[in-house]
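Complex 442.
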Amino acid sequence: MKSPSIASPSSSFRKTRLSSYFFGLLALIILLILLYSEDFSFLFFRRPSRFQPEPIIINPIQQQQVDVDVDVDRPISTTVKDTKKKVLPFAVGETEECDLFNGKWVKDESNRPLYEESECPYIQPQLTCQQHGRLDKDYQFWRWQPHACNLARFNATFMLEKLRGKRMMFVGDSLNRGQYVSMVCLLHRILPEHGKSMQTFESLTVFRAEEYNASIEFYWAPFLLESNSDNAVIHRVTDRIVRKGSINKHGKYWLGADILVFNTYLWWITGMKMKILRGAFDEERKDTVEMETDDAYRLAMKSLVKWVQRNVDPEKSRVFFTSMSPSHGKSIEWGGDPYGNCYNQTSPIEDPKYWGQSSQKSIMKVIGEVFSKSRVPITFLNITQLSEYRKDAHTSIYKKQWNPLTPEQLANPVSYSDCVHWCLPGLQDTWNELLYAKLFYP
Ligand SMILES: *[C@@H]1O[C@H](CO)[C@@H](O)[C@H](O)[C@H]1NC(C)=O
Ligand SMILES: *[C@@H]1O[C@H](CO)[C@@H](O)[C@H](O)[C@H]1NC(C)=O
Ligand SMILES: *[C@@H]1O[C@H](CO)[C@@H](O)[C@H](O)[C@H]1NC(C)=O
Ligand SMILES: *[C@@H]1O[C@H](CO)[C@@H](O)[C@H](O)[C@H]1NC(C)=O
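Predicted structure with 2-acetamido-2-deoxy-beta-D-glucopyranose bound:
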């Protein structure tokens, strides 16, 4: 998509005419200021109260010197020196002075869920809770309400228009796959049956919206770096090994995506030190070192930032990172039954300060530190706190079981309840509403 340009562009613009063109443009800018002084004042005057970077956009592009030379194909705001913040690709609205991630859950039976489980054929059987016997539907009716503003309404037509001729890609683990599927469910309804398809090629799943020439993709890379868990189907290994400096192994499949949404967390949390491979996986004697989780995770985040800086054009593409998805494996953490977990939970946690043991604050800190040094902005989707409240939203026992359950398990559902993944429709639709808001109204 071409950026909107206020100065009407002329492709025959030549260097020799730069100065006269420049004065013409300057005159136009001054005219515009006079006409719309309120609207454009932000281009020239720092107004920290309004354009202060929110904590979630960890790094608006600031380090790069803005080119003073007038380039007619660029939006006008990027040609003016000293602007506080560039207009991000896909943005259509203004920054709202509001932390979208700080809010509460409200029951809203008239506007939720955003789609029905039975209407979306793309949901994997691990996430179709109703089909697998969940009786209550309460978890579908909660809407996230930020304290200081309202979330933009998710408009599938609008989003597909903006994705025309583009690729959006989710990269990460099964939790990110859940968010990906939620996004496909949110968008597919307006497409005719013959105009959409989903195909999987090993680690890559591609949903195509033909009429829009748009694809929404998921790439399996639970550590982002190369690991011994990279097989998209058989990846449950206990002795996890991650290879240092290997991000291009997967990164080559992410090239050219217009919107990237990364996550990685759960696979790092083994309760043990992490094994980092320094050589190659096929070497007979593997050269590994053990690292504390935080240090190993930092290594991966640094690789990600390096990859993004090398391969993402911030004038064209957007990068998001979704924070840790919490688990609810011990109800004692929220003052419940000492032997229970998310099983049989049908309402959110009400304590606004609740933070369980599954989400390590030190990891959040690592992410913040590393991303703050990125020259390409990475928009942080800070979904951890809001998901912490949702002990009711997990798939629990209501999912396809790959292995037959034993009589002991059947007698004690807590023992096989999945308190990591989330039913769809459900919580992850909210993550996408937040992604939508940050994409178009950063
Ligand atoms: C994430 O959001 C929560 C809730 O608003 C907030 O307490 C926390 O500081 C945020 N974290 C970051 C890194 O922005
Ligand atoms: C959704 O977006 C489309 C395309 O931009 C627009 O025509 C339509 O009015 C929007 N719908 C709502 C409910 O805002
Ligand atoms: C379809 O989109 C791709 C990018 O995903 C682009 O390269 C290609 O030119 C587009 N094709 C048409 C016919 O617009
Ligand atoms: C589920 O929770 C309710 C209370 O919320 C309780 O009465 C019921 O016995 C529980 N069921 C099981 C099978 O644990």
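Residues 344 surround 2-acetamido-2-deoxy-beta-D-glucopyranose (ligand 4) (CB under 6 Å).
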